[in-house]
Amino acid sequence: xxxxxxxxxLVLALLFVLAGIGAVVFFAVRGAxxxxxxxxxxxxTAEENKTLKIDVAKPVTLKVSxxxxxxxxxxxxxxxxxxxxxxxxxxxxxxxAEETLQDIQYEIKQNGNSLTLIYRLxxxxxxxxxxxxxxxxxxxxxxxxxxxxxxxxxxxxxxxSVDISSDFGDATVKNIEGALTLENSSGEIQxxxxxxxxxxxxxTADFGRIxxxxxxxxxxxxxxxxxTISLNNIRAxxxxxxxxxxxxxxxESGSAASITFExxxxxxxxxxxxxxxxxxxxxxxxxxxxxQAMAESYNLDSNSGGINVNGAKNNIKAYTxxxxxxxxxxxNATLDxxSNSGGIxxxxxxxxxxxxxxxxxxxxxxxxxADSKLNVNLSTxxxxxSSDIPITVTLxxxxxxxxxxxxxxxxxxxxxxxxxxGPISITAIK
Length: 430
Fold this sequence. Notes:
The chain has helices spanning about 1-30, 95-105; strands at about 40-55, 60-70, 70-75, 80-90, 105-110, 115-120, 130-140, 140-150, 155-160, 160-170, 170-175, 180-185, 190-195, 200-205, 210-215, 220-225, 230-245, 250-265, 270-275, 280-285, 290-295, 295-305, 305-320, 325-340, 345-350, 355-360, 365-370, 375-380, 385, 390-395, 405-410, 415-420, 425-430. It is elongated. It is mainly β. Helix content is about 10%, strand content about 65%. The chain has three domains: about 40-150, no CATH class; about 170-305, no CATH class; about 335-430, no CATH class. It is built from two helices and 33 strands.
């Protein structure tokens, strides 16, 4: 009686094994276009060309909706819209690829000077997605709107607004006169030579580097979840706003009415920039570095990272939890400086005040003109106080000189300097 039972169990086990093999083969076939065990795919390609007549006396509106494929739009001195279509199919064999190629369909719709190009994916998708590339030449006076799923997007030489939404693929925009809106989920973004005039420029990327060069507009907005932001020669008559979760942010040469930079992790660097109003930088993890960034006021905040400023004026507020603060070549500055853990150094001329400089753990060094007229309140819990500029003392601390109140050169604006642990040093500059 045991032998038939054993045989039955073996047969049952064999059936399970065969069923498992059958499932593996089924899903391999279904997921790979009947290409067993990852057989390499081959492609087949076909090209078509269309000429679309338009009224050259009126601007053109071009919309492209492409689920998979590259989109290239270029403006030129043309009297018609020229469209080159490249279809590519993938399969396990050449014959199968050629057969699939015949099934790829796209649409071209025209209503006067309004044109729409459409490619939609249909049916079951294999290891490789069949694609349709649109390469379009339009008159320079054209409004462009692109919605792309997978593929590279390239737009150039357009006098008109450009609106791009792309899921996966690099995007390049250059030589545009008009508003620009560009959103990309994953891929590098490069924007150059864009003049939006009184219109706005907005660029957003989930994952990928963003580079803007020679861009003019009203409000300029840049958002990146993960990737570096590089700005060069940007001029915003309104506000310049940049936000990055992960990645360095650099801005060299330009101007704006106001600037606000926010980053969760990465260095923020601004060089040779004129700001008519406020410069605000918030950085969770990373340094803040300014060189010749001239603003009406500064609000610099870093949770973890040093703050370095070379060349500044007016109201300077700089806070860091972990890191040092160094400000040099300042002009007529009103100071509000605080480091929870790190030293503070300042050199330059001071405004009317009041001024507050505070460090929980770290020394404080101030280099100011010898003729500075100030009321001073200097105190340190653990450290010494020294000054090259004579202080007429009204309140003196203990024998270790850990607190001094008095006046410099007859007195003036109030300078309060406090450190819990570290020396305070004031040096004179001519």
